[in-house]
Amino acid sequence: MKTGRSLTDLAQELERQAQTKRDFLISTADAECLPPAADRPTAYTLRFTVGDEAVQPVVRDLCHDQLGAHLGIPKPYYERLRS
């Protein structure tokens, strides 16, 4: 078992994550994929609008997994494309 965090700290972190997480279901017509910066060549940025709010979430591994699955791209191939 890993050490370094008390049970109270872990509970507080889980509560913080539960309060800040956001899931989005958007049309592809509403999404925009921006090219990566020179210092991070595989870090694409996703941008879309929800109501009046422009959202630019961090695209993490779970998002990549869901995109690949939705598009029918095998995971090993998708991962090769990302690298």
What would you say this structure looks like, in words?
With 83 residues, the chain is α+β, with helices and mostly antiparallel strands. It has a domain at 31-83. It is built from 3 helices and 3 strands, in the order H-E-E-E-H-H. It has helices at 7-20, 61-71, 75-82, and strands spanning 31-34, 45-50, 53-55. A hairpin with a 2-residue loop joins strand 2 and strand 3. It is extended and about 40 Å long. The model has no long low-confidence stretch (mean pLDDT 86).
Biggest beta sheet summary? 3 strands, antiparallel
Kindly estimate the percentage of residues that lie in beta strands according to DSSP: 15-25%
Spans of at least 5 consecutive residues whose pLDDT stays below 50 are none
Shape: extended
Record the SSE blueprint.
Elements: H1 7-20, E1 31-34, E2 45-50, E3 53-55, H2 61-71, H3 75-82
Give the structure's gist in a few sentences.
By secondary structure, the protein is of the alpha+beta class.
Main features:
83 residues, alpha+beta, 3 helices
